[in-house]
């Protein structure tokens, strides 16, 4: 039987990063993955493939809507080759997952393909093409999450689908009904909207991306409506039925009236649930809570002291970069170091176009906490860089403490917001004030000038370009 200092169950961003960091710290490490490719949901059927399709569809939309204005004439009809688009997406996935294979070899990490389950707290049974048992002094559970559904919805993976199936459709939907106005639904909805589908979003809450700042939600809603999305908030879905190639969704609106949506595809994107199926956690003394999450303490240690859990399988935002930070945190904890994660400074991003990004507190949270704050906001359309690229929608909003001027939250909608938010994270990590950021030189012309201007606006309302 092979023995290891650390075994990692699950090879998503949290798992493979944890394994690499353990190996870097001199621990003999194994990683267990039930699928034939490493990388988990994120690399195989999540973050990476969805961004590949978002980029491809963005190029197509630019070609049919904006090239002429840029002075680019393309003779003949511009057509979507969905088969090639999906094939390119898959090649991106293959290259990325292949990169993880390389990193495992480079760091001398043993890879086991099969479903890992606990025999006890120090032994793991791996069922694949053959059954293997390994011994591990420490184990990291990184088994991730799966798409959630509603009790009355039967996902047939053909017409009533999750994000996994939406990434490999063989035709462009005529009318895609998206149940859930969160990140996944809006991103994939935009992919197919650009390619010609009618898209109807049906959201239970009174606004889309409801966990984000209300101003951001309102702006994104306005932009998507301009892109011809049909938004239906405050709608409670009560039935989803397939009849041949047709899907019928019935919901009650905020007045309690029944509304019917009819389309050829229905994407169910109502969140994700922790995935612990087959783990046999109880055999190792690992406790789960009522939501199916693995219970952990502040060291991400489970009720079994030598077993840790990270990523989507524990509480907190289901984000790949959160899982990565936790993977490093646990590896360094096992090695006797004293690492730290500031969960308040983990950014959230929606990769629609314009992109949405945020870090820190929302206005609603500051009001609820009774914190006096000030707001600095700057519109993207006031930037020369935005006009040059025709990306005029959105804004940057900075929330700062009214007394100390410390930045408490940054929220933005706009081109390259996903990249720009890192500046806000760095500033807040060092507890910068709005004035600190306002006095930093930002290259001109760039989108990040909006951050400087929003900081100026929060500092005695002295933005320069509005």
TrEMBL record:
The keyword Flavoprotein is annotated on this UniProt entry: yes
Keyword Transmembrane helix recorded: no
Keywords: Disulfide bond, FAD, Flavoprotein, NAD, Oxidoreductase, Redox-active center
Catalytic activity as recorded in UniProt: N(6)-[(R)-dihydrolipoyl]-L-lysyl-[protein] + NAD(+) = N(6)-[(R)-lipoyl]-L-lysyl-[protein] + NADH + H(+)
SUPFAM superfamilies: FAD/NAD(P)-binding domain (SSF51905), FAD/NAD-linked reductases, dimerisation (C-terminal) domain (SSF55424)
Required co-factors: FAD
Extra remark: The active site is a redox-active disulfide bond.
Name of the molecule in the record: Dihydrolipoyl dehydrogenase
Lineage: Bacteria, Pseudomonadati, Bacteroidota, Flavobacteriia, Flavobacteriales
